[in-house]
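Justification of resources, computational component.

The compute hours requested in this renewal are based largely on the per-chain cost of generating structure records like the one below. Each record pairs the submitted sequence with a full C-alpha cell output. That output is archived, and it is also reused by downstream analysis tasks.
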Amino acid sequence: MPDEIDPTEHLQLTTSERDLDTLATQLTGWLQVRTGAEEPPVIASLSRPQSGGLSSASVLFDAQWRVAGEPRRGSFVARMVPEQGAFPVFRDYDLPLQYRIIDELATRTDVPVPPLRWLETDNTVCGAPFFVMDRVNGRIPGDNPPYVFAGWLYDATPAERAELTRNTVDILARIHAITEPARRFPEMDGPAPALRRHLTAQRDFYRWALVDDGYEIPLIERAFDWLEAHFPADPGPDVLSWGDARPGNIIYDGCTPIAVLDWEMAALGPRELDLAWMIFLHRFFQDIATNFGMPGLPDFLRRDDVVAQYEQLTGHTVRDLDFHLTYAALRHAIVMARIKRRMIHMGEDTAPADRDDYIMHRASLAAMLDGTYEWD
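The structure output for this chain reads:
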C-alpha cells in the first residue's frame, strides 16, 4: 500500500478503465435484444462499486423498459471480465463457470445467492464476457477502509458480531454440503488429488502474476518450500470450495446473510481451504489495526470459535489447520503482490526496494513459517 496512508480512509484505486458512457450505450442495445423491449431501455445510475475486492470488475445499473406494453424495471449488477489495460489481478475469469456455480447453489441448496438474469459470452457486446444478476440490497463489511476500523460491523455489539460469525460459518457449511462436486463441476476435477492440483495452480498463478515479469519474491518462494515440507498426508474429502470465503463477499440483512458473492476463486478441495481463508483474511485486517495501534475487532472470527462452530454444524473434524492457514497467507501474498504491482502500474504506489515488501503482511507470513505467529 502507499506510504503514509490513513487506514481508516477510503483509498481511491483503479479497478477498470472502461468508459461508463460507452458501456451504458452498449448495455442499452444488448438489453433491448435480451428482453425483447419495444424500444431501447433506459439505463440509469451506472456506477462502479465504491467498496469491495480489488479484483472487482462489476458495474451497478438501473434499467426500465416495456415488453408488449407492460413496464419492466430492475436494479442489476453486471459482473465483467477485466480488460487487459486494467492490469487484472487474475489470469483467468471463467464467467460461465461462476454463473453455473451460482445457478447450482440456487437450485440445489439453500445458500442465498443473487438471482441470475443473463450470461453473455460474446466479446463484441461490451469488449468482454459478462453476466447480469439482480442487485440485492443490504450491507457488506467494508474492505476499503477495512471493517476493523469503522462501519456497521465495527459499531455492532459483541453479541451481534458473535451472531454474525455463527451465521457466516453456517454459510460455509451449507456450501460444503453440496453433493458430488466433482461430478457437478468436472472442469475443476483432474487426475491428481484436489489439494495437490490447487497448490500447483497457485504456483502457476505466482509465475504468471510476478515471476514471468522478473518479480520473484523470496518470502513467497520460502513459503512454497514450507508447504511442500508440511503437505498433509491425508487432506480429507473434497468439497466445492468457495475460494474467497469472507464476510466482505456476503450481503447481510442485520446479521443474516442474504446473498453470497464472488466465485472467481472457486475450486475443488478440502473444507479447510475455505475455513483457513476466512480466519486468515480477518486476521490480516486485524493485524493492520494492531500495527496502527488501534483496537480492531479481536473478538470476531476467532480461530477457535470458527473451528468449533464448523465442527458442530458439519460433524467434520478440522485437520491440518496450520498448513491451511499458512497456505491462505501465501495465497493472499501472491494476490497482494499482484495488486501492488497494479497500483505501481497505475501510478498509485511506488516500487519498494525490498521485494518482500510487495507483501503487505510479510511479517505475519514470516512468523507463520517460523512457527511464532500468535493466534487466539
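The radius of gyration is 21 Å. The first strand starts at residue 42 and ends at 47.
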